[in-house]
Design a protein that fits this description.
This protein is mainly beta. The chain has 3 domains: 122 residues, Thrombin, subunit H; 117 residues, Lipocalin (Beta Barrel); 49 residues, no CATH class. Helix content is 3%, strand content 50%. A 5-stranded antiparallel beta sheet has the order 1-5-4-3-2, with no helix packed on it. A 4-stranded antiparallel beta sheet has the order 6-7-8-9, with no helix packed on it. It starts with 5 loop residues before the first helix and ends with a strand. The relative contact order is 0.08. The N terminus is likely disordered.
Length: 344
């Protein structure tokens, strides 16, 4: 069933009675002991929203360093919770997705997923969730009602194992999925999950980003070459194609009509979407190579951690420097008045 029936709902309510969920308006947070699951972190101008390894969802005020809301979960939440107004959306259990009012701590709705949700996106009034070993599930934002399911099928038609969470990007009408069901990239309608088009190529690992009306799509052919492409989002036709040692595990960053991506030969590349020109803007050294890490954009600079240091790369002149030492890994960056702060 798409939404819990009465029996399942009663069982869920019974389970949730054992879960403590309440708002704390004055509790101070220990910045060095947040226990954050890195994949779950969202940084806004004033809030940190994240899940912890101790099965909690936290909404924290950056300025006051106070916890505004906390909710105990049944299972560890690997996905990134999303706050819209006072409504917080996240998987509360491996097969249960929920919407909670953070002002009252009351559950607005629960909906069932076929498997563990480790990633989801909110697009217009829809939630598109990666559901491990089950597929992609589209839910209504207001009610939690399942609108469509794209089921994962393993067999003769596609012998590639489940690669969830699948990398997804989107515009106002469609979402675009990488390496799903033996297609390199596929486009689906947000409202009903109807497939619009797909591209099938040789097997690779890829990443996609919607930017300025086109799709930037990079492919890694298992470190034996690769390419970057621009696709027309309406039909998947190729607008640009060039060879690149694209690292799909590094999430491309969009800034000022340009896409910054890492190539596995130790270089940061800049692709100008308007002029469709690609160039290397920085060559890493072994001691400051971003390989294995992500970069975070703030005020025209990229920040990242490597070899127990935090580095800043300015995108105006590509100057590079150490800004913090003795840090294993950063999960995000934010501005606090005139000071840059890091989440680690």
């Amino acid at each position: 069933m798409n939404v819990f029936n009465a029996v399942n709902m009663k069982l869920l309510v019974f389970l949730l009675l054992f879960i403590i969920g309440c708002g704390y308006k004055s509790e101070k947070t220990d910045e060095k002991d947040r226990n954050i699951i890195s994949s779950s972190l969202t940084v806004t101008d004033s809030l940190l929203i994240y899940a912890t390894w101790s099965n909690k969802i936290i909404v924290e005020n950056i300025r006051s360093h106070k916890i505004l809301f906390t909710k105990k979960t049944i299972s560890i939440c690997y996905a990134r919770p999303v706050l819209i107004g006072k409504k917080l959306y996240f998987p509360i259990a491996d097969s249960v997705f929920t919407c909670v009012d953070i002002a009252t701590s009351k559950t607005i709705w629960n909906s069932r997923l076929g498997g563990r949700c480790s990633d989801f996106h909110i697009i217009d009034h829809s939630i598109i969730a990666n559901s491990k070993s089950y597929g992609l599930v589209g839910m209504d934002l207001d009610s939690g009602k399942v609108k469509f399911e794209l089921r994962y099928r393993y067999g003769v038609g596609c012998t590639i194992p489940d690669l969830s969470p699948y990398r997804i990007s989107f515009d106002k009408k469609a979402f675009y999925v990488c390496d799903w069901q033996c297609a390199s990239v596929s486009a689906y309608h947000i409202a009903d999950g109807k497939r619009l088009w797909q591209k099938v190529t040789d097997f690779s690992n890829s990443n996609v980003k919607y930017v300025d009306g086109v799709l930037f799509w990079g492919r890694n052919k298992f470190y034996k070459g690769g390419e970057i492409l621009l696709l027309d989002p309406t039909n998947g036709s190729v607008l640009y194609q060039g060879q690149a040692k694209f690292e799909a595990n590094f999430n491309p960053i969009v800034y000022a009509h340009r896409v910054y991506y890492y190539s596995y030969d130790g270089k940061l590349n800049e692709f100008d979407v308007k002029t469709r020109k690609n160039k290397v803007v920085y060559v890493f050294k072994p001691e400051n190579d971003v390989s294995g890490y992500q970069m975070y954009l703030l005020n025209g600079s990229l920040y990242y951690s490597a070899q127990d240091n935090v580095y800043q790369l300015n995108l105006k002149n590509f100057s590079h420097k150490v800004v913090k030492s003795d840090v294993k890994d950063i999960y995000g960056v934010y501005q606090d008045k005139d000071k840059v702060e890091f989440i680690f």
